Amino acid sequence: MMDEFMKQIAADPPKRVDGTAVFMTGNFNVVPPALTLNMSHNKVLHDTNVFLTILTEEVPRVSSRKRVEVAELGQGFYAVTARYGFMEDPNVPRILRMAATRGLDIDLDNTSFFLGRERLLARKKSGMPVWREKIFAFLSRNALGATAYYHIPPDRVMEVGAQIEV
Description:
Blueprint: H1 2-11, E1 15-24, H2 33-42, E2 44-57, E3 68-74, E4 77-85, H3 92-100, E5 111-121, H4 130-141, H5 146-149, E6 157-165
Parallel strand pairs: 1-2, 1-5, 2-4, 5-6
Antiparallel strand pairs: 3-4
């Protein structure tokens, strides 16, 4: 949980590096796996860390004044929530520029984006027919990647992966 993580960071601060790290997450109350893996392997945190959650609302469009919310969590951590309508395309660089108008001013040229990537593997004893598992894994592999979908600069992305059996 995020509260425990923040207490641990306060009690035993890791080394910090310049720049900003953006971790995309569906729930900023839970520490993103990409962050924990990055810390366990690299033993550092960026000076500024952003948990970015993008929500799709049940309306065609969301007004620009309701688009982005920023919450400071302390110790260089921020939670950014962006809302889009189902007819709109999310754009992470645009979200971060809008966050600057709400107090989170970061240099996009000095920002790294950490994305979790799961590779689904079919297994024989899951309860689902193997042919279905293989189709699901195939469709998952061939879906548009987060980098392209969210318009994230590809030269700024770090993907942290895991293999999951279905």
